[in-house]
């Protein structure tokens, strides 16, 4: 195993100790995401006053948010959490210790176009949604408290989140995709079966 691959796996396993437990994953990952989606949807459905009228469906914040919530996030979660957990053959419940970066590399190398569209789209849309949302939160809540402070224009924020968040993630993904998949052939068979459970990868 290469040094880079070993470092990646060590970092991933360390992160799992903090968030990928039955309680922590729900409290730190699924809970906040669900609360955010539900609150945004309820606001859109229930707002009646002009002052609280939801922003247009075609606004950048709405487009990026609903694309992530309705398309990219479900596909990502099903692919990486739900489908690998199926106990029936040939998947045989790929456990957390087996579901590492080799799984991701196998997807990138076997279905490169689809995998890059999913990972790239999820990454780009999420960071730009964060950028648009940060501007709204700042202007509504923080700017009155800190009138002399500026967080830059939308274009500036988009450049910052792309350079600081999206680009490093996508660069790491690129170099990972170029490394050989280092796992047993039997595990690769289970990986393939897990991916093919998704209609996205069967097409």
Residue share in β-strands:
under 5%
How many beta-strand runs?
0
| Tally of domains | 1
The percent of residues in helical segments reads over 70%
Radius of gyration: 20 Å
Individual helix count: 8
Low-confidence stretches: none
The secondary-structure element order is: HHHHHHHH
Alpha-carbon distance between the two ends: 33 Å
Q: Could you say which overall geometry the principal axes of the C-alpha atoms support?
A: elongated
Quick synopsis:
The chain is mainly α and 203 residues long. It has one domain (57-202).
Written description of the protein model:
The chain is mainly α. It has eight helices and no strands. It is elongated, with a radius of gyration of 20 Å. The chain starts with a helix and ends with a helix.
What's the topology here?
Blueprint: H1 3-19, H2 22-46, H3 60-82, H4 101-110, H5 112-142, H6 154-177, H7 185-196, H8 199-202
Domain Mitochondrial adapter protein MCP1 transmembrane: 72-158
InterPro entries: MCP1, MCP1_TM, SQR/QFR_C/D
GO biological process, one term: lipid homeostasis
List keywords for this structure.
203 residues; mainly alpha; 72% helix
């Amino acid at each position: 195993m290469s040094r880079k691959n070993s470092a990646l796996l060590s970092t991933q396993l360390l992160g799992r100790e903090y968030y990928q437990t039955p309680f922590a994953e729900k409290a730190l990952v699924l809970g906040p995401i669900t609360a955010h989606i539900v609150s945004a949807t309820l606001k859109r459905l229930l707002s009646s006053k002009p002052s609280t009228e939801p922003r247009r469906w075609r606004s950048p914040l709405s487009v990026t948010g609903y694309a992530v919530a309705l398309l990219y996030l479900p596909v990502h979660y099903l692919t990486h959490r739900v489908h690998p957990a199926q106990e029936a053959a040939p998947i045989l419940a790929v456990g957390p210790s087996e579901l590492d970066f080799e799984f991701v590399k196998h997807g990138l190398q076997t279905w490169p176009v689809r995998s890059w569209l999913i990972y790239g789209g999820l990454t780009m849309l999420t960071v730009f949604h964060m950028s648009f949302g940060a501007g709204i939160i700042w202007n509504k809540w923080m700017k009155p408290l800190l009138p002399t402070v500026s967080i830059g224009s939308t274009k500036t924020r988009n450049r910052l989140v792309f350079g600081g968040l999206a680009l490093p993630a996508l660069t790491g993904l690129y170099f990972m995709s170029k490394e050989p998949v280092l796992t047993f052939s039997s595990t690769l068979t289970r990986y393939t079966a897990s991916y093919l459970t998704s209609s996205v990868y069967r097409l």
